[in-house]
Amino acid sequence: MTTTTTQQDLFVSTGLHTWNQAITRATAFFDACTDEELEKTISPGKNRVVYLLGHLTAVHDRMLPLLGLGDRLYPHLDALFVTTPDNPAATLPSYRDLRNSWMTINQHLTDALKSWTPEEWLQKHTAVSDEDYAKEPHRNRFSVVINRAGHVQYHLGQLVLFKK
Amino acid sequence: MTTTTTQQDLFVSTGLHTWNQAITRATAFFDACTDEELEKTISPGKNRVVYLLGHLTAVHDRMLPLLGLGDRLYPHLDALFVTTPDNPAATLPSYRDLRNSWMTINQHLTDALKSWTPEEWLQKHTAVSDEDYAKEPHRNRFSVVINRAGHVQYHLGQLVLFKK
């Protein structure tokens, strides 16, 4: 570690590693679930596995505008998986479509993350004003990505209860 | 953001913020639990809340030698909360002692984290050899802290199932 640039790259690579690890673990979990298992609840009276698949997909889709990466791919998922609790009577997209959306949004995000310079990682996210960012410069893209990896971990802790 | 040093400080402050947020949320959860609630399981047949309190405390205690911060404070917790699954027949420390240990170890760690320069955050953790660190420089203290914050999130996702 001889240059400052290298040090910044190390912080960035830790952020990317944290994100990749969370996505890899969650994807392995969902891939190991049959469609029948997606319909099970993680615990009696709690969310179904498919709700958490849709929820994580929708939350990651919301990262596109938040990180300044363009328009959302799946805005229709919010009404089913973010703004309302799990409702077994609701008509969901096909499980195949949901699984594909999960893969697509994560690949899309990961490709963008891998292309960023340290400076780009530290740009403010779009939900914070220039004024607030000047006062709270930790409200940046790096922070968003670490936070969302933690959100995946949070729900993974719940998902494994169903499998164990 | 005018200097490179400032940029490094931003990565560091995100790491510290992530750690603090996880500790604050978990502490608020445990503080809101009565001793009777600590004995409840998070879900039928799964870990008791007190097991997760002891588990998180022990795992954080293990961070002391891993981060080069000296000897452990509570090595006796491992046999109860890390190397064996939850056993309601085991004799545990008093809940008061466990709650105090959780507060003490986190304060101890947080004080150290707050004192580190960016260079100190990027030092290798002690479980990686010099040779491996040369090849995999992301195996550093920053990575350990982010990882353990994610571990707290993972178990928080489970703990809230009991409260909801």
UniProtKB/TrEMBL annotation, chains A, B:
Residues 20-159 form the DinB-like domain. Coiled coil: none annotated. This is DinB-like domain-containing protein. Signal peptide: none annotated. Pfam families: DinB_2.
